[in-house]
Amino acid sequence: MSSINLLIDIVLLTMLVFTTIAIVRSRSLFAIVMLSGIYSLLSANIFIILDAVDVAFTEAAVGAGISTVLMLATIGITGYEQKKRRTISWIAPMVVVVITGAVLVYGTLDMPAFTDPSAPIHQHVAPRYINDSPTEVGIPNMVTSVLASYRGYDTMGEVIVVFAAMIGVFSLIGIREKKSEPIHAEPPARPILQVMAKFMIPFIILFALYVQFHGDFGPGGGFQAGVIFSVAIILYTLTFSQQDAMKLVPPWVLKRLASIGVLIYGGTGVVSMLKGGNFLDYSVLAHDPIHGQHYGILIIEFGVGLTVACAMMLIFFAFISRGDKNP
Questions:
Q1: Judging by beta carbons within 10 Å of its beta carbon (0-12, 13-18, 19+), is residue 4 exposed, middle or buried?
Q2: pLDDT at residue 259 above 90?
Q3: Cα-flanking dihedrals φ and ψ of residue 28, to 5°?
Q4: What residue ranges are annotated as transmembrane (predicted)?
Q5: Are 192 and 269 in the same domain?
Q6: What does the pLDDT look like over 91-118, one tens digit per residue?
Q7: Please, what sign has the CA dihedral across residues 53, 126, 282, 262?
Q8: Whole-number Å distance between alpha carbons of 112 and 121
Q9: What is the mean pLDDT of residues 130-152?
Q10: Rounded to an integer, what is the distance from CA 184 to the centroid of its chain?
Q11: Residue 243: pLDDT band by 50, 70, 90 thresholds?
Q12: What is the mean pLDDT of residues 177-196?
């Protein structure tokens, strides 16, 4: 590791520590949300240094982007200040933290050194994907090959988790749709924001489509594209109104599309079985295995992006509708 990289790592880790301390000590929920977004951005920078660009992409889009917006919508319901509680002793929590930290450190003592080329992961798992992925899958982006093909079951499970989270939010709070016209509290400033939003939203959607369909060749894929696409609609909602956004993308349509995305993923596996292959074995979807892998990955990534985008928009609508004080 070069000295400049070491210096950058030290600076980023130091900033992470100070950000964490600020989050723990702050009683303002708004400040905590903002600091959490900063923490996610710093983490994304660390992932970039580790050459995990796809992970950094996801952390920036989900951690610093959509999570921050959802938490802001949540404090619109709960309030901006943490409720005061009676003072408790910090000794017991500190003892628990120290013991837990010591156990975790002890558990890492027999692990291989960081970047050790003789570590098992570099001797068995990584060579298998690096050497065989170009001939078995044929996707330039090896991360996409692993996530969408070799780990297709796991990725499908992640999509179902997102879908289940959406169902859980609906079960708890639902979406409160208002029929009255929106009441804008600050009409002089809103037209400026609306003009800028109209300028930015097409580029955000275009970038989401690029990330969706370019994930085979570079960082990206359905998860990142879905979040970016939902951000465009969330920006539209924040600058116009909840009612305007729900007219543009009605919740009943989003619910069905989110379900269709999961069905596209699972249906691809069923079609693979009907054509004589294993579940999610894309090799049988075309006249040769490489083209079959290409088609299968494109299809399931589209299903992932569809479900993630719709789920994120619906969850946001659920939270913001509960915090809306308009009649």
A1: exposed
A2: yes
A3: -90, 115
A4: 6-24, 29-50, 56-78, 90-109, 155-175, 195-215, 221-241, 253-274, 294-320
A5: yes
A6: 888 899 999 999 999 988 888 887 777 8
A7: negative
A8: 10
A9: 85
A10: 31
A11: confident
A12: 63
Residue 128: HSE in the Cβ half-sphere, 13 Å Cα cutoff: 7
Going by the DSSP 8-state scheme, the letter that residue 181 receives in this structure is P
Total domains in the chain come to: 2
The span from the CA of 230 to the CA of 316, in Å, is: 9
Q: Can you say how many angstroms the Cα of residue 289 is from the centroid of all Cα atoms in its chain? A: 30
Shared domain check, 156 and 78: no
Task: Note down the domain range covering 7.
Answer: 1-84
- Residues 72, 134 share a domain: no
Using alpha carbons only, what angle is made at residue 325 by residues 324 and 327, rounded to the nearest 5 degrees?
105
pLDDT of residue 64: 85
Averaged pLDDT for residues 296-321: 91
Asked whether residue 14 is domain-assigned, the answer is yes
Say whether both 151 and 223 belong to one domain.
Answer: yes
d(C-alpha 155, C-alpha 132), whole Å: 20
Report the CATH number that the domain containing residue 25 is assigned in CATH.
Answer: 1.20.120.1200
Same domain flag for 191 and 297: yes
Q: Which of 87-96, 283-292, 300-309 has the highest mean pLDDT?
A: 300-309
